[in-house]
């Protein structure tokens, strides 16, 4: 069972932390692509920063709904949006509910070029489980690569009360900048795409009071 910090003393600093080696990332990537046919286009599901910073060219982008998982600030970040001493929180796809996001279609001949960087970005600590899952779009169902939360990873944290969550987000910063910016940029990207996430929007509105303005909704 995953050990959790007590609500009265949540910091994440005492939890185990290890970056995956290049060999571990490659083994995970090879396993995810073991049924992929060279040259075949692939779909990738984005629910967080991939919506506003995909870092790859794509042939097509659609709004999509993933069933069975929901977007949540459930992953400690000790590099990108925090440090080992003062971790931040980033989004993962936790069990239950559904998630509205986007799917990107990548040209098959570009998969060998783009996927190693995608794995370095998403799988630096092995906190996600890469899975191929059907996603519903207005143009039909597509089978997309989805990075869902690995609940057995020490970096996983269950839902927190909003005051404690906000405290963590406000204090943390990592190599990509403040955790607050990450949360607000994700909220902005969802709003711009016409995606409504009531939980995230409530958090972002609180952060707006700290001087991180959100755009008006569509």
TrEMBL record:
<dbReference type="GO" id="GO:0016740">
    <property type="term" value="F:transferase activity"/>
</dbReference>
<protein>
    <recommendedName>
        <fullName>glutathione-specific gamma-glutamylcyclotransferase</fullName>
        <ecNumber>4.3.2.7</ecNumber>
    </recommendedName>
</protein>
<keyword id="KW-0456">Lyase</keyword>
<dbReference type="InterPro" id="IPR013024">
    <property type="entry name" value="GGCT-like"/>
</dbReference>
<dbReference type="GO" id="GO:0006751">
    <property type="term" value="P:glutathione catabolic process"/>
</dbReference>
<keyword id="KW-0808">Transferase</keyword>
<dbReference type="GO" id="GO:0005737">
    <property type="term" value="C:cytoplasm"/>
</dbReference>
<dbReference type="GO" id="GO:0061928">
    <property type="term" value="F:glutathione specific gamma-glutamylcyclotransferase activity"/>
</dbReference>
<dbReference type="InterPro" id="IPR036568">
    <property type="entry name" value="GGCT-like_sf"/>
</dbReference>
<dbReference type="Pfam" id="PF04752">
    <property type="entry name" value="ChaC"/>
</dbReference>
<dbReference type="InterPro" id="IPR006840">
    <property type="entry name" value="ChaC"/>
</dbReference>
